[in-house]
C-alpha cells in the first residue's frame, strides 16, 4: 500500500538534492572551466568532467522519477498532464545527455591544452574553445527550458490533484513562467535576468521543505490502494 507521506518525502528529498546538486555543480564544480589553462591540471579536468556528467544525468533523471511516483496522487484524473510530465522529463533528460557530451568535449579540449603545455592558446585555439563553450551553453539552456516546461506541467498536475496549498502552487507556476522567460533571453543572445530566476530558487527551497515536513494533503484512492 502506497503512503502519500512517504511519497511526499521522496519527492521533497529529490527536489532538495536536485537544488543542492545544481548549486554545487554550477558554482563550484564547473567554475574551474573558466580559469586560465595554466591554472588547470589534466587529472583534475578529467575527474571533474566525469563527476559533472554523472551528476547532471542523475539530477535530470529526478524529474522523470518524481513524475512517475506522483501518479498515485491522482490515478483517475490528470492523465494528460501526467503523460506530458513524463514525456517532457524524458526530452529534458535526452537534452541533458547532449549537454553532457558537449561538456565532455570542452573538458577534453582543455585537457589537450594542458597536456601539451599550451598555456597561451593561439587565436584559432581560443576561438575553438569559445565555440565549444557556446555549443555547451546552448544545449544547457535548451535542457533547462524543457525541464522548466516539465516542471510547469507537474505543478499543474499537483494543482489539479489538490494535494498542496493553492497559493504555493500558483507561486510555483509564476516562478516557472519567469524562469522560462529568463532562459528565453539566451536564445536571442541576450543576458539572462538573474532577478527573474529568484522566485524559482525560492520555490525550489520552500516546496521541498513543505513536502518533507507537511507532506501531501490527500490519501491515494481506495482503488489504487487495493491494487497494492
Structure description:
The structure is a single chain. Helices cover 75% and strands 0% of the residues. The protein has 228 residues and is an all-alpha fold. It is elongated and about 60 Å long. Residues 220-228 have low confidence and may be disordered.
Would you spell out the secondary-structure blueprint of this structure?
Blueprint: H1 4-29, H2 42-69, H3 79-115, H4 123-161, H5 166-184, H6 198-213, H7 222-227
Helix pairs in contact: 1-2, 1-6, 2-3, 3-4, 4-5, 5-6
Low-pLDDT runs: 220-228
- Could you say how many structural domains there are in total? 1
Global structural class:
mainly alpha
Overall average residue pLDDT:
89
Biggest beta sheet attributes: none
How far apart the termini lie comes to 5 Å
The counted number of beta strands is 0
Q: What's the helical proportion of residues?
A: over 70%
- Assess the beta-strand content as a share of residues: under 5%
Global Rg: 20 Å
- The ordered H/E elements are HHHHHHH
Query: What gross morphology would you assign?
Result: elongated
Helix segment count?
Answer: 7
Give a short overview.
By secondary structure, the chain is mainly α. It is built from 7 helices and no strands.
